[in-house]
Specification:
Chain A is mainly β. Chain A has no helices and 11 strands. Chain B has 115 residues and is mostly beta strands. Chain B is 0% helix and 54% strand. Chain B contains no helices and 11 strands. In chain B, strands 2, 4, 5, 9, 10 and 11 form a 6-stranded mixed beta sheet that branches. A 5-stranded antiparallel beta sheet of chain B has the order 1-3-8-7-6, with no helix packed on it. In chain B, a hairpin with an 8-residue loop joins strand 9 and strand 10. The termini of chain B are far apart. The chains are: A mainly beta (114), B mainly beta (115). The interface between A and B is medium-sized, with 23 and 25 residues.
């Protein structure tokens, strides 16, 4: 069974460019979470969806960040324009809304903004 | 609001020694608690979880944790460290209690194992 799939695994871009991160949750899961991990701030929730609907986006840093979940098997996190302080590892996780709360994490996308 | 505190950002043990990683939580509702492990350049992998059943929870790779409500603790232990246990460990609590919502993570504890 495939786990959570994220692409790309690594992204290097220049300040001001648009960046799109992609996530495919585990088939059948109906909750999806985007986290950001940095040395300074640790793991932070950016946004999460239940049944494709955004529930809590209070962690989205600012208007430069946006996330969508057009269907149950795909989500994107977009940064436009990107800034050097956005450099981090971005994780996507998924689970069953009515499960035990355990979240299954993807391998992450390491973003470097020059 | 729920929160998690992990004492010690870095713990070093000798191979074969006891591993003890500390986690204290704050929760206004009965919590679900988790320990995750992260190896370099990888995502987080679940070690074990407490979901209001048995207070002593056994996980993968010989790890276990005990839920102590009176101490608001969920410390992770392993009787004998192995070199392959070197990784970063995260304690987490569900944001709203029970199984709903996102996880609130501690800052993590990096475990080093000396030969």
């Amino acid at each position: 069974d495939a786990g959570v799939i994220q692409s790309p695994r690594h992204e290097v871009t220049e300040m001001g460019q648009e960046v799109t991160l992609r996530c495919k949750p585990i088939s059948g899961h109906n909750s999806l979470f985007w986290y950001r991990q940095t040395m300074m701030r640790g793991l932070e929730l950016l946004i999460y969806f239940n049944n494709n609907v955004p529930i809590d986006d209070s962690g989205m840093p600012e208007d430069r960040f946006s996330a969508k979940m057009p269907n149950a098997s795909f989500s994107t996190l977009k940064i436009q324009p990107s800034e050097p302080r956005d450099s981090a590892v971005y994780f996507c996780a998924s689970n069953f809304l009515s499960g035990s709360g355990e979240q299954f994490f993807g391998p992450g996308t390491r973003l470097t903004v020059l | 609001a729920q929160s998690v505190t992990q004492l010690g950002s870095h713990v070093s043990v000798s191979e074969g020694a006891l591993v003890l990683l500390r986690c204290n939580y704050s929760s206004s509702v009965p919590p679900y608690l988790f320990w995750y492990v992260q190896y370099p350049n990888q995502g987080l992998q679940l070690l074990l979880k407490y979901t209001s059943a048995a207070t002593l929870v056994k996980g993968i790779n010989g790890f276990e944790a005990e839920f102590k409500k009176s101490e608001t603790s969920f410390h992770l232990t392993k009787p004998s460290a192995h070199m392959s246990d070197a990784a970063e460990y995260f304690c987490a609590v569900t944001a709203y209690g029970g199984s709903q919502g996102n996880l609130i993570f501690g800052k993590g504890t990096k475990l080093s194992v000396k030969p």
